[in-house]
Design a protein that fits this description.
This protein has 635 residues and is of the alpha/beta class. It is built from 20 helices and 31 strands. The protein folds into two domains: 474 residues, 3-Layer(aba) Sandwich (Rossmann fold); 127 residues, ANL, C-terminal domain (GMP Synthetase, Chain A, domain 3, 2-Layer Sandwich), CATH 3.30.300. The chain starts with 8 loop residues before the first helix and ends with a helix. Bound molecules: adenosine-5'-monophosphate-propyl ester. The site of adenosine-5'-monophosphate-propyl ester has 22 residues, from helix 11, strand 20, strand 25 and strand 26. The site of adenosine-5'-monophosphate-propyl ester (PRX) has 22 residues, from helix 11, strand 20, strand 25 and strand 26.
Length: 635
């Protein structure tokens, strides 16, 4: 029996039991067999969730890019590592082989070095989904610099906040980006952000759109001429197992974004192992994850997991609806995609279109389908299963988080029987528990509670950059000796998990995590606004959409209010990005508050969801009269 590749349910249970009985031994075996180490570890695991501190493979020396690239050169040097599909279907796809990727990453590492980047420095990457994005990420890892990729849909304010928080010295960006029929002035956004970032002394610019842009002398450089004169050799920096690999920001329920810190060896072992098993990747398969590398899904399952397995990973620059709603299926047919991994929100949007978009394409190459990022509703699950998978492809509903680094609860295709809307069973080595509000574990099946994990796994985030106390408070304080996920879940009669959604003030809109506090802060910047509260409400494509309740300093006429609505969304776009725009804005004279002054969001959520018949006990409110007013003018 191979621990590395699970093929049957029985095997899953056996390996799972082994991984839980003796996690150190289990992960040590996986690490021994499948990776290139300059030095093996002295200790497999040490941990203390009270501090919290977790260390895997301490004492080991390695470079993750040697495992992603160099290790495959003699066996698969000419095989495609990254298959780039451009936004415009007329533009040819690019097949970047492992050998070519090796040369390009090394050239980029040499450029970084020539601009003064060294081990431990932070480099912010703000690029569209073009090959240079993957190359830049890997070049940072090669040199030992800590990459912090910021999704290129974020605004200049969001970008500068992240650059300053991690203290990046360099930004890698492009002159612009293509998104469907639009072009976006990325460099303009970077320029604006950098007005507030005194620590950045170098900007490397990829030419993607031949845009007319400003280049600040002594700071900004076109990247191609620098790459052209760089050597394609670069000895990888030898890293310690626990050296930081990257920082990736995720929204919190309060305050500024959290820079989740991931380290090297554990992340490598876990992303490689999950990729292999969750997608049942076989040599020469073509795997496609439609996420953006600006999110954790792209880090772990476009770049690291696939490349660690010598896979061919498709990188798509565009959007599902350009030039029409058949684009995904056209790409699956064109590149004979075998594993396809996307978000429920995309499935819901595509399911609304004419079936002909799917039916006219040959999707017979597909073997495994995946979803990630939010709960998938039953209807979308069946549409995906019937029309895309033709009832032959298992759907892996994968639950995990930026903080977990890799997939945590998921079926294993062809082994775990799937059940619509259920993420099913914990992955190997993962020990989930459900907790009640009083901090007691809920045993047995057919129960629901707060989802926690009681034992560390190799790719757990190690800290929040610059704020370890916040890391502890957010994830390790609610329940003693547990990692708290922030999600609720139920466990059915056979032990399958179904994620029921966030139990904090994070709202998942189209698969993107959004904290309510930063959105409210943005709204409150509007000079006419006195106070605001944002909640989520169910939306048939986005999963959730945002509903803002806003108190104005002075109530104006309808027309004035309409202008304020537009301006509020403009401010949100500037502060965070268009993904955080509100679908509905209701003006009100007050917000329901407890006697201690806390907004009762539970009531607002019910009103926003048009479920205000039974609001439960509102007697503890300071101002119960406001509830009728809000209900009466709900949108
Ligand atoms: O609420 C869960 C939801 O997405 C959150 C994590 O978001 P993020 O850190 O952006 O990572 C998304 C990609 C891994 C979780 O706390 N979530 C993620 N996957 C699922 C999910 N909810 C239900 N089902 C899933 N499969």
């Amino acid at each position: 029996m191979s621990n590395y590749h699970i093929k049957h349910l029985e095997e899953y249970y056996q390996v799972y039991r082994k991984s839980v009985r003796n996690p150190e031994l289990f992960w040590e075996e996986v690490a021994e067999e499948h990776f290139l180490w300059h030095k093996k570890w002295d200790n497999v695991l040490s941990w203390d969730f009270k501090k919290p501190e977790v260390k895997w493979f301490e004492g080991a020396k390695l470079n993750i890019t040697e495992n992603c690239i160099d290790r495959h050169l003699h066996t698969r040097g000419n095989r495609t590592a990254i298959l780039f599909e451009p936004n415009n279907p007329e533009e040819p796809a690019q097949h970047i082989s492992y050998s070519q990727l090796h040369a390009r990453v090394n050239q980029m590492a040499n450029v970084l070095k020539s601009k003064g980047i060294k081990k431990g420095d932070r480099v912010c990457i703000y690029l569209p989904m073009i090959p240079e994005l993957a190359v830049a990420v890997l070049a940072c890892a090669r040199i030992g610099a800590i990459h912090s990729v910021v999704f290129a849909g974020f605004s200049s304010t969001a970008l500068s906040t992240r650059i300053n928080d991690c203290g990046a010295k360099m930004v890698i960006t492009s002159d612009g980006s293509y998104r469907g029929d639009k072009t976006i002035d990325l460099k303009g956004i970077v320029d604006k952000a950098l007005d507030d970032c005194p620590g950045v002394n170098c900007v490397l610019v990829v030419n993607r759109i031949n845009g007319e842009i400003n280049m600040k002398s002594g700071r900004d450089y076109w990247i191609q001429p620098l790459l052209d004169k760089s050597s394609s050799d670069f000895p990888a920096e030898i890293m310690d197992a626990e050296d930081p690999l990257f920082i990736l920001y995720t929204s919190g329920s309060t305050g500024k974004p959290k820079g989740m810190l991931h380290t090297t060896a554990g992340y490598m072992v876990y992303t490689a192992y999950t990729f292999k098993n969750v997608f049942q990747y076989k040599q020469d398969d073509v795997y496609w994850c439609t996420a953006d590398i600006g999110w954790i899904t792209g880090h772990s399952y476009i770049i690291y997991g696939p490349l660690l397995n010598g896979a061919t990973s498709v990188m798509f620059e565009g959007v599902p609806h350009y030039p029409d709603f058949g684009r995904f299926w056209e790409i699956v047919e064109k590149h004979k995609v075998n594993q396809f991994y996307t978000a429920p929100t995309a499935i819901r949007a595509l399911a609304k279109q004419h079936l002909d978009f799917v039916e006219k394409r040959d999707l017979s190459s597909l073997k495994v389908l995946g979803t990630v990022g939010e709960p998938i509703n039953e209807e979308a699950w069946h549409w995906y299963n019937d029309n895309v998978g033709k009832k032959k492809c298992p759907i892996v509903d994968t639950w995990w988080q930026t903080e977990t680094g890799g997939i945590m609860i998921t079926p294993i295709p062809f082994a775990t029987p799937t059940k619509p809307t259920y993420a099913t069973l914990p992955f190997i080595g993962i020990q989930p528990v459900l907790m009640d509000e009083n901090g007691a574990e809920i045993h047995g099946n057919q129960v629901d509670g707060r989802l926690c994990i009681k034992f560390p796994w190799p790719s757990i985030a190690r800290s929040i950059w610059g704020d370890h106390q916040r890391f502890k408070d957010t994830y390790f304080s609610a329940f003693e000796n547990m990692y708290f996920t922030g999600d609720g879940a139920l466990r059915d009669e056979v032990g399958y998990y179904r994620i029921t959604g966030r139990v904090d003030d994070v709202i998942i809109v189209s698969g993107h995590n959004l904290g309510t506090a930063p959105i409210e802060d943005a709204i409150n910047e509007h000079p006419a606004v006195a106070e605001s509260a944002v909640v989520g409400f169910p939306h048939d494509v986005k999963g959730n959409a945002l509903y803002g309740f806003v108190i104005l300093k002075e109530t104006g006429e309808g027309r004035v209010q309409d202008n304020v609505r537009k301006e509020i969304n403009q401010i949100i776009t500037e502060h965070i990005g268009p993904i955080a725009k509100l679908d509905k804005i209701q003006f009100t004279s007050g917000l329901p508050k407890t006697r201690s002054g806390k907004i009762m969001r539970r009531i607002l959520r019910k009103i926003a969801a048009r479920d205000a018949e039974n609001l439960g006990d509102i007697s503890t409110l300071l101002n119960p009269e406001v509830v009728d007013e809000i209900k009466g003018s709900a949108m």
